[in-house]
Amino acid sequence: MSRLTQAEIAALHEALDDEYKAWTIYDQVIHDFGPERPFINIVESEARHIEALRALFERYGVAVPGNPWADRVPRFASTREACQAGVEAEVENAALYERLMRSTEREDILAVFENLRRASQERHLPAFRRGASRGEGGRGPGRGRGPGRGCGGP
Protein backbone atom coordinates (compact mmCIF):
# COMPACT_ATOMS: atom_id res chain seq x y z
CA MET A 1 0.00 0.00 0.00
CA SER A 2 1.46 3.33 -0.98
CA ARG A 3 2.09 6.09 1.49
CA LEU A 4 -0.38 8.91 1.89
CA THR A 5 0.42 12.34 0.54
CA GLN A 6 0.64 15.28 2.93
CA ALA A 7 -2.71 16.51 1.55
CA GLU A 8 -4.34 13.16 2.34
CA ILE A 9 -2.90 13.10 5.85
CA ALA A 10 -4.08 16.66 6.43
CA ALA A 11 -7.55 15.74 5.15
CA LEU A 12 -7.78 12.77 7.52
CA HIS A 13 -6.69 14.97 10.43
CA GLU A 14 -9.24 17.65 9.54
CA ALA A 15 -12.04 15.11 9.19
CA LEU A 16 -11.23 13.41 12.49
CA ASP A 17 -10.96 16.74 14.29
CA ASP A 18 -14.40 17.75 13.00
CA GLU A 19 -15.93 14.43 14.09
CA TYR A 20 -14.28 14.70 17.52
CA LYS A 21 -15.70 18.19 17.90
CA ALA A 22 -19.21 17.11 16.90
CA TRP A 23 -19.13 14.12 19.26
CA THR A 24 -17.91 16.29 22.14
CA ILE A 25 -20.55 18.98 21.57
CA TYR A 26 -23.41 16.49 21.37
CA ASP A 27 -22.10 14.59 24.38
CA GLN A 28 -21.99 17.87 26.33
CA VAL A 29 -25.61 18.58 25.37
CA ILE A 30 -26.59 15.16 26.74
CA HIS A 31 -24.63 15.88 29.91
CA ASP A 32 -26.34 19.27 30.30
CA PHE A 33 -29.91 18.33 29.38
CA GLY A 34 -30.21 14.58 29.74
CA PRO A 35 -30.75 11.84 27.17
CA GLU A 36 -32.65 13.86 24.58
CA ARG A 37 -33.22 13.04 20.93
CA PRO A 38 -31.73 13.59 18.47
CA PHE A 39 -28.54 13.95 20.51
CA ILE A 40 -28.56 10.43 21.96
CA ASN A 41 -28.78 8.95 18.47
CA ILE A 42 -26.39 11.32 16.77
CA VAL A 43 -23.66 11.07 19.42
CA GLU A 44 -23.57 7.30 18.77
CA SER A 45 -23.36 7.96 15.04
CA GLU A 46 -20.48 10.40 15.58
CA ALA A 47 -18.65 7.70 17.53
CA ARG A 48 -19.00 5.38 14.53
CA HIS A 49 -17.71 8.17 12.25
CA ILE A 50 -14.67 8.54 14.50
CA GLU A 51 -14.01 4.80 14.36
CA ALA A 52 -14.26 4.76 10.55
CA LEU A 53 -11.68 7.53 10.32
CA ARG A 54 -9.43 5.97 12.93
CA ALA A 55 -9.44 2.76 10.88
CA LEU A 56 -8.07 4.73 7.91
CA PHE A 57 -5.32 6.21 10.10
CA GLU A 58 -4.37 2.72 11.23
CA ARG A 59 -4.57 1.22 7.73
CA TYR A 60 -2.07 3.77 6.45
CA GLY A 61 0.18 3.75 9.52
CA VAL A 62 -0.61 7.32 10.56
CA ALA A 63 -0.65 8.07 14.29
CA VAL A 64 -4.19 8.66 15.53
CA PRO A 65 -4.49 11.94 17.41
CA GLY A 66 -6.55 12.18 20.56
CA ASN A 67 -9.68 14.25 20.97
CA PRO A 68 -8.62 17.83 21.75
CA TRP A 69 -12.16 19.14 22.36
CA ALA A 70 -12.76 18.26 26.03
CA ASP A 71 -13.84 21.41 27.90
CA ARG A 72 -13.53 23.46 24.69
CA VAL A 73 -17.02 23.17 23.18
CA PRO A 74 -19.86 25.67 23.36
CA ARG A 75 -22.67 25.28 25.88
CA PHE A 76 -26.28 26.04 25.08
CA ALA A 77 -29.17 27.59 26.98
CA SER A 78 -31.66 25.04 25.61
CA THR A 79 -31.85 21.92 23.51
CA ARG A 80 -33.58 23.98 20.82
CA GLU A 81 -30.58 26.31 20.69
CA ALA A 82 -28.32 23.24 20.51
CA CYS A 83 -30.39 21.90 17.60
CA GLN A 84 -30.04 25.21 15.78
CA ALA A 85 -26.28 24.99 16.26
CA GLY A 86 -26.46 21.37 15.07
CA VAL A 87 -28.08 22.52 11.82
CA GLU A 88 -25.22 24.94 11.20
CA ALA A 89 -22.59 22.35 12.12
CA GLU A 90 -24.04 19.69 9.80
CA VAL A 91 -24.23 22.13 6.87
CA GLU A 92 -20.58 23.03 7.48
CA ASN A 93 -19.74 19.32 7.79
CA ALA A 94 -21.10 18.58 4.32
CA ALA A 95 -19.05 21.42 2.83
CA LEU A 96 -15.99 20.13 4.66
CA TYR A 97 -16.33 16.66 3.15
CA GLU A 98 -16.97 18.06 -0.33
CA ARG A 99 -13.65 19.91 -0.01
CA LEU A 100 -11.76 17.01 1.58
CA MET A 101 -12.83 14.61 -1.16
CA ARG A 102 -10.77 16.69 -3.60
CA SER A 103 -7.61 15.81 -1.63
CA THR A 104 -7.43 12.19 -2.72
CA GLU A 105 -8.28 9.62 -5.35
CA ARG A 106 -8.04 6.67 -2.96
CA GLU A 107 -11.29 4.76 -3.12
CA ASP A 108 -11.28 3.72 0.54
CA ILE A 109 -10.80 7.28 1.81
CA LEU A 110 -13.34 8.65 -0.66
CA ALA A 111 -15.87 6.02 0.42
CA VAL A 112 -15.50 6.93 4.09
CA PHE A 113 -15.72 10.66 3.38
CA GLU A 114 -18.81 10.15 1.20
CA ASN A 115 -20.50 7.94 3.82
CA LEU A 116 -19.87 10.53 6.53
CA ARG A 117 -21.07 13.38 4.31
CA ARG A 118 -24.21 11.45 3.42
CA ALA A 119 -24.97 10.60 7.05
CA SER A 120 -24.62 14.25 7.95
CA GLN A 121 -26.92 15.44 5.19
CA GLU A 122 -29.49 12.66 5.10
CA ARG A 123 -29.86 11.86 8.79
CA HIS A 124 -28.29 14.38 11.16
CA LEU A 125 -29.29 17.59 9.37
CA PRO A 126 -32.99 16.66 9.03
CA ALA A 127 -33.12 15.58 12.69
CA PHE A 128 -31.64 18.87 13.86
CA ARG A 129 -33.90 20.86 11.52
CA ARG A 130 -36.96 19.12 12.99
CA GLY A 131 -35.73 19.89 16.49
CA ALA A 132 -34.89 23.51 15.74
CA SER A 133 -38.33 24.11 14.23
CA ARG A 134 -40.17 22.87 17.32
CA GLY A 135 -41.36 25.51 19.76
CA GLU A 136 -39.98 25.95 23.24
CA GLY A 137 -41.67 24.11 26.03
CA GLY A 138 -42.56 20.46 26.05
CA ARG A 139 -41.49 17.91 28.57
CA GLY A 140 -38.06 19.37 29.14
CA PRO A 141 -34.76 17.58 29.39
CA GLY A 142 -33.39 15.28 32.02
CA ARG A 143 -36.53 14.51 33.98
CA GLY A 144 -35.54 10.90 34.50
CA ARG A 145 -38.34 9.45 32.39
CA GLY A 146 -36.25 8.05 29.58
CA PRO A 147 -35.22 9.63 26.31
CA GLY A 148 -37.20 12.70 25.49
CA ARG A 149 -38.38 14.16 22.25
CA GLY A 150 -35.53 16.65 22.42
CA CYS A 151 -34.78 20.04 20.94
CA GLY A 152 -37.91 21.64 22.29
CA GLY A 153 -37.18 21.80 25.96
CA PRO A 154 -35.65 24.50 28.09
List its salient traits.
154 residues; mainly alpha; Ferritin; 4 helices
CATH topology: Ferritin
Return the CATH class: Mainly Alpha
Helical element count?
4
Tell me the distance between the termini: 52 Å
Q: Any guess at the CATH architecture?
A: Up-down Bundle
Number of strands: 0
- What is the H-and-E element order? HHHH
Q: Kindly state the mean pLDDT as a whole number? A: 89
Number of domains: 1
Q: In angstroms, what is the radius of gyration?
A: 16 Å
Q: How big a fraction of the residues is strand?
A: under 5%
Helix content: 55-70%
What overall geometry do the principal axes of the alpha carbons give? elongated
Q: CATH H-level name... which superfamily?
A: Ferritin, core subunit, four-helix bundle
Q: What would you call the structural class?
A: mainly alpha
The low-confidence runs, each spanning 5 or more residues with pLDDT under 50, are 136-147
Largest sheet: none
